[in-house]
Design goal:
Structural class: mainly alpha
Largest sheet: none
Pfam families: CsbD
Number of domains: 1
Radius of gyration: 15 Å
Helix content: over 70%
Family: Belongs to the UPF0337 (CsbD) family.
Organism: Paraburkholderia acidicola
Distance between the termini: 19 Å
Order of helices and strands: HH
Domain CsbD-like: 4-56
Number of helices: 2
Number of strands: 0
Shape: rod-shaped
Biased composition (Basic and acidic residues): 48-61
Strand content: under 5%
Length: 61
């Protein structure tokens, strides 16, 4: 498993929590930061998954 998958998933979780805290407290800045962090984590996780698939495809040759 690629480290980007793990780090991306962690960023997604952290971003979700930050977004929720921002919503609950009414802090739009924190909420927006959480959304950005969650989106960044999703991209990083997807990149890690793509690297894993490419590695698996090369190993099957």
């Amino acid at each position: 498993m690629d480290t980007d998958r793990i780090k991306g998933a962690a960023k997604e979780i952290k971003g979700s929590v930050k977004e929720a805290v921002g919503k609950v407290t009414g802090n739009r800045t924190t909420e927006a930061e959480g959304k950005v962090e969650k989106a960044t984590g999703t991209v990083q996780r997807n990149f890690g998954e793509a690297k894993d698939k490419a590695r698996d495809a090369l190993d099957k040759k």
